[in-house]
Design brief:
single chain; alpha/beta; Rossmann fold; 8 helices; 7 strands; 39% helix; globular
């Protein structure tokens, strides 16, 4: 385990704090080590598929929802939109059909390539792909009218919230579709988003009703 931790931290320094928290959280667990090992193997398997075969994730209907569901929160037509943690880019493509400009921010190189291919196939000249993270978005301050995430917030929440407020213009919106079933117990992420001024609502995907959080930034 120490060797794996060093390897991951070396290859991706951004995960150092998360790894430390994960190790601390699991150190007092009574679950057998074998259970954690099996969970880790499946996480690694998912990661490999996600990076090497993004079309496999892109085909998962249960992760999809119609971007029109955002219209009950704010106007998208003609807006500059950031899709942070864009993944395979299905939401970015959908948003680009109504937004003026869409920036798909994604840290995984293979996924960025996949999004560019998807934009080319759809002839979307207003969809731009950027290498970045939700807590480190490569755009100037106040560059977007709307920032959206889909199951992508919470890895470094404190830094993410600061960065979101930096890039969204006064009067703009941040909307996070967190993917948690609406009837499930509240999580720490729910509590922290609400404490940061985000209002809860819900959206629907193939798996049912899910939680969503939105905040309008009024500015200074």
């Amino acid at each position: 385990m120490p060797h794996l931790r060093r390897f991951i931290a070396t290859r991706c320094p951004e995960l150092t704090d998360w790894l430390a928290g994960a190790v601390d959280a699991g150190s007092g667990s009574s679950e057998p080590v074998g259970g954690h090992a099996r969970a880790l193997v499946w996480e690694i398997a998912d990661l490999l598929v996600y990076q090497r075969f993004p079309e496999a994730y892109d085909a998962l209907a249960e992760l999809r929802w119609d971007a029109d569901q955002l219209a009950d929160v704010c106007e998208l037509e003609g807006r500059t939109i950031i899709d942070a943690g864009a993944g395979s880019g299905w939401l970015s493509e959908d948003l680009a059909r109504s937004g003026r400009v869409v920036f798909a921010v994604e840290p995984v190189g293979r996924l960025r390539e996949y999004i560019r291919q998807r934009a080319d196939r759809a002839a979307l000249g207003n969809l731009f792909v950027l290498d970045g993270l939700l807590h480190r978005i490569p755009l100037p301050a106040s560059s977007a009218d709307v920032l959206v995430t889909s199951r992508a917030i919470g890895w470094q929440l404190a830094d993410e919230l600061v960065e979101i407020e930096r890039v969204v213009r006064p009067g703009g919106w941040a909307i996070h579709s967190v993917g948690t079933p609406d009837d499930s117990p509240r999580t720490e992420l729910d509590e922290r988003l609400e404490a940061s001024g985000y209002a809860p609502s819900r959206y629907r995907d193939a798996g049912g009703w899910r939680r969503r959080y939105a905040r309008r930034f009024d500015g200074g």
